[in-house]
Write a structure and sequence with these properties.
Two copies of one chain form a homodimer. Chain A is of the alpha/beta class. Chain A is built from eleven helices and 16 strands. In chain A, a hairpin with a 3-residue loop joins strand 15 and strand 16. The radius of gyration of chain A is 21 Å and the shape is globular. At the A-B interface, strand 12, strand 14, strand 15, strand 16 and helix 11 of A face strand 12, strand 14, strand 15, strand 16 and helix 11 of B. Strand 14 of chain A pairs parallel with strand 16 of chain B.
Chain lengths: 360, 360
């Protein structure tokens, strides 16, 4: 099948509060050059899929408040490729909109749906895996998810248990699991049957529309009723009116865990959801003192295992810190042990209680 | 004697590198609202002496680069009251200039010379002590220094040993000492004979001129030769030419340790030279978690005994810090244990080596 029928949907509406204050409501994680490469996570996501689909076939789903940021960071894409959600309604309504929009452009289309705030390294392997996935979903009425080969008993991810193999590297999904405890995670990894759920999905437009009609008709009914306005100037009015009226639900709950034609492609490219400072630390290059400096100027003394996330040209001078997050975002400074990063959410709440929205 | 003949010389040329990065070459310690009172240390020094001398009789000795800062912070004083040193030459040439200038205005004058970057609390006692000092130096050919009653065996200060009492609270100076080690400092304090050397001096203009002529003639010769230009438009040219040619030496070495008519007034007002982060911490009000917050917004968790010195409206969020300095000056952030503050000088050097003057 020709690449012209292949589309990529980049989901880019998250607010990323776990990286506060480095990531802010006004500049969430996906828009930040988190790896210090000169490209934001969104830009890296975009660069990655250009080997797979024509750039005209990339759609970016985002919140209305981030449209200007997306335009700035992805100047190559046309305004109509940015789909601005008037409200946050989780992934199912977002994906439905993308599917019906693409269906209106090209009923034969297939698509990959990917988050914009994850890290993937090993682009060659990624492209190879996704091409195989496209081939599969174009030839089968299949909802395909990518399962990352686990490299450690991670308790922060959901896992996918594989069932029968239907083709090399392609299996039926037996179960989706919640985040396991450490003991269970070890069992999962040792078994060889469990793979990390990366939240990357592939399907043909017709397959996902059919799945919505079967398992989430309250969503598909809205979009089917508006089929004739999709990809026309009238689409905006429909979205402004009906999108906020959609139930807020993830594609996992709405479709993937209910459907019977769900498959997993087991892949080996390196992936991280960069969901925590700890995972960012693990995935970043370290200096001789095992500190991650995120390209900022650092003078460190008696300090190891820290992550310094500081904007701009700022100089950071530290002495006697081990295993800390030092994150500076201009108007907020955070100094916190990496081991206590789960409390950052509480800190954000406390900041809101004491100072209102000023520092969010 | 009438207050009209009394003058105050505020020395305000220091660069305060020990408080880097909060204090910077461009904004040294004396210009900062260090105690969060709304007044800088310089402004507090000025406010303090207004009870003692007419505001027209205040001279501010500073470096040429800080003249605008002085004008901004002390808008009440006239331009001719700010004496801009074209080069840094320690305290002796600075005090000589002040003495010859004042002598040209009023040969009967007496004067107090005070640093601008120390903290004094208990203004009523200060005024009472200084009035007694003025009376003494106006009636005697005396070089008077103020000796602070020590409250702890501080090793960071020089001490003055008192000799014979000549009047209540006024003694001959027996010796000036260097900074003692802890054991010796304890002996000093227990003896009752040793007082902290605050670097605050009082004398009549004629007494200090005579002392310069006896003990530092290489300085007094220059100023005596220029007596007729002092306090005239030609003074500036003389200073530009001759001040940089003066030897760089402190008033202590040049005069006080050599002269025979040196006296000490033992005083009981609370004083700190605020020479270190530790002394700033000791002298500042603390919150319930024993942190000093310098009026900035702080959310602290599991953190005690820290000092947060952060400019502007910035929010500081810390977890798991004990006894640290967290100092943020916009383009530089320092996080360092208070116990290692003596290494800040080295850090400033390292910053200079790596980044030039950018962060000094």
């Amino acid at each position: 099948m020709n690449d012209q029928h292949r589309y990529c949907v980049i989901m880019c509406g998250g607010i990323g509060s776990r990286f506060w204050p480095y990531s802010r409501t006004a500049l969430p994680k996906q828009f930040i050059d988190f790896m210090g490469t000169g490209r934001s996570l969104l830009q890296m996501s975009y660069d990655r899929v250009l080997a797979l689909v024509p750039k005209e076939n990339v759609l970016v789903m985002t919140n209305a408040m981030y449209v200007d940021l997306v335009r700035e960071q992805l100047p190559d894409i046309a305004p109509e490729q940015i789909l601005a959600e008037p409200a946050r309604r989780n992934t199912a309504p977002c994906i439905a909109w993308a599917a019906w929009r693409i269906g209106a452009i090209d009923p034969q289309a297939s698509m990959i749906v990917t988050p914009s705030d994850h890290l993937i390294t090993g682009e060659r392997l990624f492209v190879e895996n996704v091409r195989r996935g496209f081939d599969f979903v174009e030839q089968n009425e299949a909802l395909l998810t990518l399962g990352i080969t686990p490299t450690r008993p991670e308790t922060g991810y959901g896992y996918i248990q594989v069932g029968d193999e239907v083709a090399p590297g392609l299996n039926k999904v037996k179960t989706f699991t919640e985040k396991p405890d450490l003991e269970l995670a070890k069992v999962f990894v040792d078994s060889g049957e469990f793979f990390w759920n990366a939240g990357i999905f592939m399907w043909s437009v017709s397959s996902i529309k059919n799945a919505f009609r079967l398992y989430a008709p309250e969503i598909s009914d809205k979009f089917d009723a508006a089929s004739d306005v999709m990809n026309t100037p009238a689409e905006r009015e429909f979205i402004e009116r009906e999108f906020p009226a959609c139930v807020s639900i993830s594609i996992d709950y709405a479709v993937m865990e209910k459907a019977r034609n769900v498959y997993v492609e087991t892949v080996k490219f390196a992936w991280s959801d960069l969901g925590t400072w700890g995972s960012l630390y693990d995935n970043s290059p370290k200096n001789a003192e095992t500190n991650v400096t995120q390209n900022c100027n650092v003078l460190s003394y008696n300090s190891r295992g820290n992550i310094f996330a500081v904007r701009g040209e700022k100089l950071v001078v530290v002495d006697g810190l081990e295993g800390y997050i030092v994150a500076d975002a201009g108007d907020v400074l955070l100094v916190c042990p990496m081991s206590r990063e789960q409390s950052i959410k509480q800190m954000v709440n406390d900041a809101k209680i004491h100072f209102g929205d000023k520092y969010l």
